[in-house]
Amino acid sequence: MDVKEIIKPENQVYGKTELLTDNVMHYCPGCTHGVVHKLMAELIDEMGLQEKAIGVAPVGCAVFAYNYIDIDWQEAAHGRAPAVATGIVRINPEKFVFTYQGDGDLASIGAAEIIHACNRGENILVVFINNGIYGMTGGQMAPTTIERMVTSTTPCGRDTELNGYPLKMTDLVAQLPGTSYVTRQSAQSAPAVRKCKRALKKGIKNVLDKKGTSFVEVVSTCNSGWKMTPVKANEWMEENMFPFYPLGDMKDSEKDKPVSNN
């Protein structure tokens, strides 16, 4: 049966941008990826960027992003999306280029690529989905797994004496001179989704204005990897991840500009 026959327009709470395809997403019910995909599709459509946008997705849960947002995409090796995006935007400076990466990808095998791309100030938007685990490969501990968080490889919870400390990537890149806008958001409620969309839009505008790297982290759930219902996963995220990963802007080159006396 055609998806259009199942999801009828009159039953939708709000309309779906045509840039979001009718392909049924492979994400688990309750996954944050689908929400952020929708936001990116809406913004690219609303800002008239379909012909200019090039997304780069590496290995991870978002590896099939090209199935869902109708723009040009480039696949990258695990962790190498910032390096691939660097090549694309330097050859095509008129394009809007963004990476879409999970925490197991960006903060682990891709840590060098993201740090150096941000330090150089490559004119790209980085969308960073942080759910605290390796969601695609079985729920193992990731660099972002918080202390005492249970994963398939830390069944008694992350022990900092044994496993080291969680890595706050967004805090790190905010210190680099090449970043123009760095923020941490979420998408577990309607108000949070609206804030997240505003942050993504600001990041896109900064890229279009060639201000350097914009970095938007979205603290997210992985209810299947966390072995929770979607509702419980949202509650657990708010109670446990938000205190360690507080939401809000960390760097905004516009707000940080000194006021001229002239």
Secondary structure layout:
Blueprint: H1 3-6, H2 32-46, E1 53-57, E2 72-75, H3 81-91, E3 96-102, H4 103-109, H5 111-120, E4 125-130, E5 133-134, E6 140-141, H6 160-163, H7 169-174, E7 179-186, H8 190-208, E8 213-219, H9 223-226, H10 230-244, E9 248-252
Parallel strand pairs: 1-2, 1-3, 3-4, 4-8, 7-8
Antiparallel strand pairs: 5-6, 7-9
Helix pairs in contact: 2-8, 4-5
Brief synopsis:
With 262 residues, the protein is of the alpha/beta class. Helices cover 36% and strands 18% of the residues. It has one domain (3-245): Rossmann fold (3-Layer(aba) Sandwich).
Identify the overall geometry: globular
Q: How many discrete domains?
A: 1
Instruction: Report the β-strand fraction as a percent range.
Output: 15-25%
Indicate the structural class: alpha/beta
Order of helices and strands: HHEEHEHHEEEHHEHEHHE
First and last CA, distance: 66 Å
What's the CATH first level?
Answer: Alpha Beta
What's the helical proportion of residues? 25-40%
CATH topology: Rossmann fold
Would you report the number of β strands?
Answer: 9
CATH superfamily: Thiamin diphosphate (ThDP)-binding fold, Pyr/PP domains
Keywords: Oxidoreductase
GO molecular function: oxidoreductase activity, acting on the aldehyde or oxo group of donors, iron-sulfur protein as acceptor; thiamine pyrophosphate binding
Protein name: 2-oxoglutarate ferredoxin oxidoreductase subunit beta
Domain Thiamine pyrophosphate enzyme TPP-binding: 67-218
